[in-house]
Amino acid sequence: MDRSAIVMDMPSPILRFAPSPNGFLHLGHAYSALQTFEWSKALGGRFLLRIEDIDLERSKPEFTKAIFEDLAWLGLAWEEPVMRQSERFDAYRAAAESLIGMRWAYPCFCSRTHIAESATSTDPDGAPLYPGTCRNLSQAEITRRLAAGDPVQYRLDMARLVEKVGVLTFSQSGPAPMDRPQIRYADPARWGDAVIVRKGTPTSYHLSVVIDDAAQGITHVTRGRDMEAATDIHVLLQFLLGLPQPIYTFHRLILDDDGKKLSKSRRSMSIRALREQGWTPDDVRGAVGLTSRN
Length: 294
Description:
The chain has 294 residues and is α/β, with parallel strands linked by helices. It has 2 domains: 11-87 and 255-294, 3-Layer(aba) Sandwich (Rossmann fold); 88-217 and 228-243, Rossmann fold (3-Layer(aba) Sandwich). It contains 11 helices and 10 strands. A 3-stranded parallel β-sheet has the order 1-2-3. α8 crosses α9. The termini are far apart.
């Protein structure tokens, strides 16, 4: 068999950087964006930008504008048009309805306060693990509460899914683009009944990210180690929805002087603020441990 023909038939690598416009980008975002961009070049592939703005209340146009400006200042270029999740609610709704119709997901009416008071353990992120309060509600009770307009979210029936699906695996690459991917086992059960549709929003991060990665043909996902555990849920959703599975790589996190992960919620120094202080793109690269472009 002609091996060159096989190579020509392989899809071109496609990578993406997908920030949420709920604040200004910081050095952690810069490192992730630069890593993804340089992987795309090393693999001879494409680099996409996606705006993950399903949280309409916290997402602001000025933050989206700043994302474009900061990434361009860092020397990144991406393909147009840029996908915006706020324009794709119909796709997420259809996927959620499919999971609900197959009875892989159920309605949950619990408040955060109830969950916090009822939980006896935590998920990998340290949040209270949902105790399954609404998992076995009767259809009459569900119908009554939906008719009353009670706030509702939808959760995966994880115990039932794990029993049905069995062992799940995914491919993880090493820290270099050309590293041979290794097989990893996914453990979605540790997340309990994860949310796939939030109250007031026809999706969750977990659902929208797998739908969009499939829609954009993403072949490689580079993400921080803080997202390693969440990949278990994504692998499960890809299996349930019949979606292709990218190769995953988990890069190191950029930490502050206290050894904590940089975050918007902790008001970590933004790229915009560093620019205003006179930093150059090479200063940013040096600060996150990358070599200069020169």
